[in-house]
Amino acid sequence: MKEIALHLLDIVQNSVTAGADHVEITLDLAPDGMLSVSVKDDGKGMSPELLQRVRSPFVTTRTTRKVGLGIPLLMQNAMASGGGVEIESEVGVGTTITATFNTGSIDCLPVGDLAETMATLILGSPDKPEFTLRCKSALGEMDFSTAEVREALGGVPLTEPEVIQWISQSLKEEIEPILGGILR
Question: 149 to each of 21, 90, 123, 169, how far by Cα in Å?
Answer without folding.
Answer: 16, 30, 14, 14
